[in-house]
Amino acid sequence: DSGVTQTPKHLITATGQRVTLRCSPRSGDLSVYWYQQSLDQGLQFLIQYYNGEERAKGNILERFSAQQFPDLHSELNLSSLELGDSALYFCASSVSLKWGYTFGSGTRLTVV
Amino acid sequence: AQKITQTQPGMFVQEKEAVTLDCTYDTSDQSYGLFWYKQPSSGEMIFLIYQGSYDEQNATEGRYSLNFQKARKSANLVISASQLGDSAMYFCAMREGSGRSGYSTLTFGKGTMLLVSP
Q: Which whole-number Å values give the CA distances from B98 to A16, A55, B32, in the listed order?
């Protein structure tokens, strides 16, 4: 157990639908990062939150949004889902940039 | 230009032998960090080793060492005495950004699949 909790582990949904992925960072970690891993694009950085505020944005689609709540958990909202959104979505947290980013076990999203 | 380049899509090694996984990076930042992660078939991302751009000595963590050549912008991972359980995908990643502002990004390479045979 890495200490970063992601729910759900698996999600199957239909095109056009909206889903919410949840992440609880390790205790004490202020930063949360979201990544998308697909076969063709590899690991893509989506967005970073630090203590409730958005700090960095990567290749995140406009159909996707995220937020970090006062208790530091984060949610990634994916809407108007397309088949190409099927991927493994990781959340990571960090307390110190030196010691790496701790990843959760991921949410595998399948859009049918 | 890609920020992280891993030129070996796959590598084969026999058990107990050493193996080097290549990684080159591109950045204009003076302060950055380099990471290696392991992703077994189960999917989780496991942090292996870290090297800071100002660290003068190569990082080591057990059987893992990072061969850091700053002038060449390379950060190769060396696994000594390979084990069957080392079979996995290995990703090199670079952190840019300032920790003081809370801003940072971690960019990954495309990975190298390592297969360890008995």
A: 38, 11, 9
Instruction: Output the pLDDT for position A99.
Output: 58
With bands split at pLDDT 50, 70 and 90, how would you rate the model's confidence at B76? very high
Decide if pLDDT at B103 tops 90. Answer: no
β-pairing verdict for B10-14 and B112-117? parallel
Q: How far apart are CA A53 and CA A51, in angstroms?
A: 6
Per DSSP, A99 falls in state G
φ and ψ of B25, to 5 deg: -135, 165
Is B108 close to A42, i.e. CB distance below 8 A? Answer: yes
Q: Are A21 and A33 in contact (CB under 8 A)?
A: no
Mean pLDDT of the B24-30 span: 93
Flag whether residue B103 sits within 8 Å of chain A, measured between CB atoms.
yes
Q: Tell me which amino acid residue B62 is.
A: G
pLDDT value at residue A98: 57
* B43 contacts chain A (CB < 8 A): yes
B102 vs chain A: nearest CA distance in angstroms? 6
Task: Please give the sequence-ordered ranges of beta strands (E in DSSP) within A42-95, or none if there are none.
Answer: 42-50, 53-57, 64-68, 74-78, 87-94
- Say which of B33, B44, B102 has its CB closest to residue A31: B102
pLDDT on residue A97: 55
Contact yes or no for A2/B44 (Cβ under 8 A): yes
Select from B29, B104, B107, B113 the residue whose CB has the most chain A CBs within 10 Å, as the one to mutate to test that interface: B104
